[in-house]
Amino acid sequence: MITNLPISIWSRRFFWLALIFALAIRSTPVAVALAEGEEDGGAPWQAPFVDNDGDETTDGFRAEQVIVRLAPGADLAAFNARNGTSLLAEITSRNIYLLQLPSGSDEATSEGVLGDDPDVVWAELNFASQAPEGRPRNFFVTGASDETSYSGQYASDLLGLDVAHACGTGTGVVVAVIDTGVDAAHPALAGRVLGSGWNAFENSPDTSDVGNGVDDDDDGSVDEMTGHGTHVAGVVAQVAPDAAILPIKALDSDGVGDAFFLAAGIYYAIDSGASVINLSLSSTQNTRVVAEAVAAAAASGIVVAAAAGNLDRPQPPEYPAIDANALGIAATDASDLKSAFSNYNSALDISAPGTDIVSTMPGGGYAYWSGTSMATPFVSGAAALVIGAGMGARDQLAQTSVPLDGLNPSYGGLLGAGRIDAAAAVGCGTNATTDANTSNVTTTASGTSEATETTTGTAVIVGTNGDGANCRIDASSEADVITVVPEGTTVDLAGDLVGEWQPITCDDVLGYVHSQYLSYG
């Protein structure tokens, strides 16, 4: 993470030039060596996927491939010679190799045989990873929009972005977007996308979000996920306008990638100094290579946000969303109801808006898109705000979220801690200060608590979802305790109210539960 840059003496433009230059001169991130492509431009490491169970919603694996981690000091050439395998790609410095099996091999049998080799730490098949919107029964709902809808969409108000940006904008934080690429020239993204990104398919810095004109996944649609990464990046940019976006292209233009290159992308993000990694993708397979990469990111203090999936189901779960080292993200709508498509699971961590989200598209345009892929970058952006403010993002996002169980009784405990509240998470509204010693405050139907005696400001309950009329605040000088009681009576706020106030909970007359924050203005 890049911290403490003296931006107060620079213009924002010079800050970005310095940030990009600083990252450009870093030592080269994790290198991935690839096998040479075939003469017709094909790439042997992009073999077709095998569906071994007949279930189109369960991910298959690359034909005749296996991933192995070898023990330190193992001789790869000798290993390949005795097993008949050959190198397709490797994640250097981490002893992880993508190997080609002998022609006609049974993948599952070969996996077991290689796993028994004394030089192997583990071996597994190379399973698919996909953008959830590209799966069967997808919710790729898009339509043309404009910049006004982008900047003024409901999610911005719901998350309190205007308030949040008064407290932090993500300055100095790098968010890695591992996806289909990013259109760095888009007006809303220009100057925010680092040039030090990586294209996993070509082992090059070309991370443009473009189609290849091929139906790579044989689903009858060509390049249907082109723009997915740009859309995701636009959400990050809206939430954390001063965070830098590191594009890593590990999904093709049909939204498909695999475990090996996803892991390689995560390691690249780690070695590039990212503080947040956005994974608007998932797999029904819990692969060792991705799990270890996510664990390595978490061990480095990086927040990994991952999409829960779009099939409106709890099982099979999607990885790495339910991995304990990642933040698993469900999607909600403008009314804080679970999005109709969103997966749900007790292992998920938090929710965010994912229905009808407006964001950037390649070529300078904007579009509506729905999916847990759209919810995930709201969390990544909010994490960037919190990290930029010097706080631990994972706990802060959960503790300041707006509970959802009351509004979603059928999904109690299955949508994480609640829907993120960016303003509360970054500290706006939680650090209340006033020099009032005695105030009589009466709650009003609007949810605003107005002082009737001595005070220097007006106490405001933030984030009530319109239920403020059913809440009251009560504070004392003996302890920073806020008790919620029904609306309609006068409250004595005695004592010195300067200090940090914790979230309060309001049980309204409808039985819903919301997180509230006490602030003064």
Mean pLDDT: 77
Secondary structure tally: strands? 25
Global structural class? alpha+beta
> Which strand order do you get reading across the main beta sheet?
11-12-10-14-15-16-17
Amount of helix? 10-25%
**How would the global form be characterised?**
globular
Q: Would you mind describing this structure in some detail?
A:
The chain is of the alpha+beta class and 521 residues long. It has twelve helices and 25 strands. The protein has helices at residues 12-24, 76-83, 107-115, 147-151, 154-158, 161-165, 228-239, 259-271, 288-299, 372-388, 393-399, 422-425; strands at 32-34, 49-50, 61-62, 65-70, 86-91, 96-100, 120-124, 128-130, 143-145, 174-179, 198-199, 244-249, 256-258, 276-279, 303-307, 327-332, 350-353, 357-361, 365-369, 438-443, 448-451, 459-462, 490-494, 504-507, 513-520. The strands form six sheets. It has a seven-stranded parallel beta sheet with strand order 11-12-10-14-15-16-17, with helices on both faces. Strands 23-20-21-22-25-24 form a six-stranded antiparallel beta sheet, with no helix packed on it. Strands 1-5-6-4-7 form a five-stranded antiparallel beta sheet, with helices on one face. Helix 7 (228-239) links the parallel strand 11 and strand 12. The protein is globular and about 60 Å long. The model is unreliable at 1-27 and 429-521 (pLDDT under 50).
Question: Which terms summarize this structure?
Answer:
seven-stranded parallel beta sheet, 12 helices, six-stranded antiparallel beta sheet, 21% helix, disordered N terminus, 521 residues, globular, alpha+beta, disordered C terminus
